[in-house]
């Protein structure tokens, strides 16, 4: 089985770590795994990590150019051509497409549909209802019916995908992103936890009985920090 993992990111964040996890799972299953995404200063470490687990890296510049004019010539046509060239080169049995934002990866998703390649599309961030033009909406719906399986990462995520693309919720699967605690943490005794909490409290200058709230993520309104505060 030959798996091709594609995403458009120019940075390394949660969605990209998710793609790396999929790559590791493919390798563990004995598959031949390729990964394709932009090569930038911020993805160099990600490229290295993919290669270290046995994944073949392919440079693929499909980073969005939102906000720029003439997107047909600056983005859509080049992205379709680059995706088509990659698919012809790798010839995957299945494509795993990670979509970090609702409007991204449109050209790659449609190109996979044109070639009728089985494709799993995972929408990582879909924070609300989005309006698509009639033409683009029809293109998405057509692609969806061309051997594609669309995945949401939460029920809330699935609701917005369903409403935006006019696809029944029951046709969309939900697979939560997992987070595995380190083995070191799992081996902590209750006493270790108390001692560690005391140490952290001293380092950041809080009282022993103060409540600590911790969240990990980029500082963006989509992450809901305003609700936490």
Automatic annotation (TrEMBL):
SUPFAM superfamilies: UDP-Glycosyltransferase/glycogen phosphorylase. Keywords: Transferase. Residues 13-177 form the Glycosyltransferase subfamily 4-like N-terminal domain. The keyword Transport does not apply. It comes from the Bacteria. One of its GO terms (molecular function) is transferase activity. This is Glycosyl transferase, group 1 family protein.
